[in-house]
Amino acid sequence: MKLLQVDFPFNGPFGEEMAAVLTGLAESINQEPGFVWKIWTESEQNKLGGGIYLFVDQASAERYLAMHTARLQQMGIDGIRGRIFDVNPTLTTVNHGPVA
């Protein structure tokens, strides 16, 4: 399992307005190869958007990060940060993390 962390400058919308605008995008992410789940992150105070994703392998996480970075850049967003991490399933399970 690989965890992908992405964040970028974002001026909104946030909260329920963001959900209303981006539900179609959220649904499309479910179709990405190797995708397991995503937690959407946002900070209206700090003007940041992003997410934490779980993928089945490194290749899937890398492929998604490249595609998502290009998509964000096409939307005029710069300063995109993406990092891929290994998951320690034993310790994550101790802390109730969703990585079956």
UniProtKB/TrEMBL annotation:
Entries under Pfam families matching the protein: ydhR
InterPro entries per record: Dimeric_a/b-barrel, YdhR
Gene3D superfamilies linked: 3.30.70.100
Top-level taxon in the UniProt lineage: Bacteria
Keyword hit for Oxidoreductase: yes
GO molecular function, one term: monooxygenase activity
Keyword annotations: Monooxygenase, Oxidoreductase
Name of the protein this chain belongs to: Monooxygenase
Biological source species: Photobacterium aquae
